[in-house]
Amino acid sequence: MAQTTVKQLASETGIPVERLVSRLAEAGVEARSAEDQISDEDKLKLLSHLRNAESARSGGKLGAKRSSVSLRRRSTSELKVNTGRGSTSGRTVNVEVRKRRTFDKGNEQTDEEPVAEEVSEARTEQLEQERAEAEAAENAKREEEQRKAAAEQAQRDEEERQRAENEAKRQADIAAQKEAEDKARREAMERERAKHGKQAVQTDTTRSRVQENLRRAAESHGRTDDDIKREKEREQGEKAAKRKELHVAEGKQGRRKDKKKRGGGGRRQKNVNVATEHTFERPTAPVIRDIEIPELITVADLAQKMAVKGGEVLKRMMKLGVMATINQTVDQDTATIIVEEMGHNPKPVAAESAEEALEQEVHAEEEQVEGVTRAPVVTIMGHVDHGKTSLLDYIRRTKVQAGEAGGITQHIGAYHVIHDKGAVTFIDTPGHAAFTRMRARGAEITDIAILIVAADDGVMPQTKESIQHAKAAGVPIVVAVTKMDVPSADLEKVRAGLAAEDLIPESWGGDIQVVPVSSKTGEGVDDLLDALLLQAEVSEFKAPIDVPARGVVIESSLEKGRGPVATILVKAGRLKRGDTILAGPHHGRVRAMFNELGEQVKEAGPSIPVEVLGLSGTPEAGDSAFVVANERKAKEIAAQREEQQRDTKLAQQQAARLEEVFSAMGENGPAETKDLNLLVKGDVQGSVEALVESLRKIPSQEVKIRIISSGVGGISESDVELAMASQAIIIGFNVRADNKARKSISESGTDVRYYSVIYEAIEDVTNAVNGLLGTELREEIIGLAEVRDVFRSSKLGAVAGCLVADGAVVRGQPIRVLRDNVVVYEGELESLRRHRDDVNRVPAGTECGIGVKNYNDIKPGDQIEVYERTEIQRKVDVAETA
Ligand SMILES: Nc1nc2c(ncn2[C@@H]2O[C@H](COP(=O)(O)OP(=O)(O)OP(=O)(O)O)[C@@H](O)[C@H]2O)c(=O)[nH]1
After folding, report:
1. Is residue 388 in contact with ligand 1, taking CB distance under 6 Å?
2. What global pTM score does this model have?
3. For a designed S-S bond to 610, which of 84, 593, 594, 743 qualifies (C-beta 3.0 to 4.6 A apart)?
4. Judging by beta carbons within 10 Å of its beta carbon (0-12, 13-18, 19+), is residue 385 exposed, middle or buried?
5. What per-residue confidence (pLDDT) applies to 877?
6. In a mutational test of the pocket of ligand 1, which residue from 390, 391, 460 has the highest number of ligand atoms less than 8 Å from its CB?
7. Binding site membership of 513 for ligand 1 (Cβ less than 6 Å)
8. Based on the structure, what is the number of domains in the chain?
9. What is the Cα–Cα distance from 402 to 396, expressed in whole angstroms?
10. Of the ranges 4-18, 182-196, 569-583, which one carries the lowest mean pLDDT score?
């Protein structure tokens, strides 16, 4: 039988020990001290005594109410546990046993005397009851929450169903639209292919393979494996959303609320009610993006743009029949198909550099703004010693900032003249060479050309050249007849000479202003300025002002203490100090600006030349300059320009070639005619005229032959520059290029054709413009010897002591004798000797003796050209271009 001490019972029942001892005594149980043992029987005795006492106290009411009594007991014991692993000691575990026993007495009345202590029993019971009530309330609440959750779930399910329905409808629409687009594209491609015939066979094959697979995919109800997979994923996503499987991080507020609800020691609340408006929902429909596609793109970049893995793109490509690697570049068409196939919207974009974008931006802005009248920009050209520099100097000395002492203190490559009736800007580098060089670089800065003709000399070869350059550039000409103060001045002779060059003076009924001037006396200089302003008025030179400034570099240099200095002629807008500019491949902030007087200026408008300090390097004359929004953009474009500079140089040097004339026509479409620019030089006026006449008459439907210049004499550097600037081919008839011109030809790659028979020249050009196949006789100069001295021997006749300047002189090859770059004799070698020995070949840098067969008129200063005739196949492929 279980025994317990009085003390233990006292603590269990919450009755003080002394009181319990006295109650036990009253109940007839003998227990005197706290340590005395009492049995269960004793406890029952005590209980019955207490009930009776309580019943007596409350008049039996309490006993009637109470139908059961609960007793709780707690006992603790020790348990030895063997931990194993050879341990002998084991471990001691305290075991606490709690028991509760309830005595149900029904409504049985008791006559035992009730006692005050029984109140504690009643409190215990009341606590139990409260707890039960709390539990019931909680259960009710939980049920209510579950009911609410179920209602919400039902609503969500309904929404999901609606969404799925809408999505299915949308997908169906997309599929229908896609099919229609595919069909249209296929038809367009078919048409395109039919139109262009064979084009990039490789690309076509790839594309057609892709198209074929596309078609097949479309046939299989437009659903590919990936589509099915995507649908499955979507379904799973929907299910997951329904189950609310995703871990949801509630807002902080929600969490705090939760804590409050729990209270201290409260039962842990289950996180049932999830606030759905804060949840992350996995997208249930694929995201359709607009994908920009450049002309070339790597598979990796394409995947990144579509936010998918590279492998997925490769897989899709494989299905379309294109094998590729992740780093492989695909063309725009292929990329477009892939993007479409992957369910996105392809947006093909034309390759556009940051510079092109900037230029477009600038032009768009300029177009929106009304231009204001600006000063004309003038270049002076003419024959050597006809007075270009003297005239410029006179104007500069007397007209710059009229009335101010000092005049120009600095040479900056251009200056600005303010005249009574307006302003004129002069480019301070006279001569057509500078003009043409600028043109060749794409910088058309000259508005008017002043053609200088000395009154005592008349129209000379370089005058004619200047006329041709100005005409080729389409620049209006004003003629200044200089040296009018010289007694031998003959204005009428000059007028006649001009008329012969198709420049009919106004006084002769034409439209060319001819102004007689003298740089010595200043006579006529004002009239010249008036004439320029009149021409400017007629031409209406305008430029926008309220736009970001842009201009052209006139010249630049690296100066000690100032760094890179560039003279920029502003073409539009106002260039200001502090602006970020880009000039050629260099950039920087305009640190300071100076005018031609060396004065600092804060800003410069259109047609004003200024020296600019602050660039990172020295740009080239003809480079364009732009004001850009920020340094970053300037740097970006500068870097691009640097990279492009080599290509640009190459492109500029990519002179027109006769063989390419016909094939290049297709580029602008068959309907568009193409100009073939020719520059003709010949030995005598008669042959030049005959050649020009015949060339002009060559019949061609697609090519318009333009003779941009023709003249007598050897081919000069200036001829080559003009040919470069005008993309012209040079025809040399019995003439050759001089040393400087040869260098320029080899640097620029200009196509120069030498002929000695007019018929051959005509045939070559005719064949080229008609795209005819066939062979062509090409002459290649293999050696050039300069005649230093001439010896005469009775046996050999005239023997030329020569130095081989270029290539090699080879026996057995045909030769020509050139005098001032004009062919004076054609024939063959009689003898080739070195130190009295007959030799077959003499290389460059070596002296030798040359005897020319049947020609004894050779002179020191002549050149002997050795050439080779080869038959070459024309490059033009009629089959391809037809
Ligand atoms: N009397 C007189 N002499 C002039 C006039 N203009 C130029 N000269 C003289 O002609 C010569 C050549 O003049 P420049 O101005 O050097 O001629 P240019 O065309 O610039 O010559 P290059 O630079 O060699 O092409 C010089 O001796 C000048 O003094 C003029 O109007 N009257």
Report:
1. yes
2. 0.45
3. 593
4. middle
5. 38
6. 390
7. no
8. 5
9. 9
10. 182-196
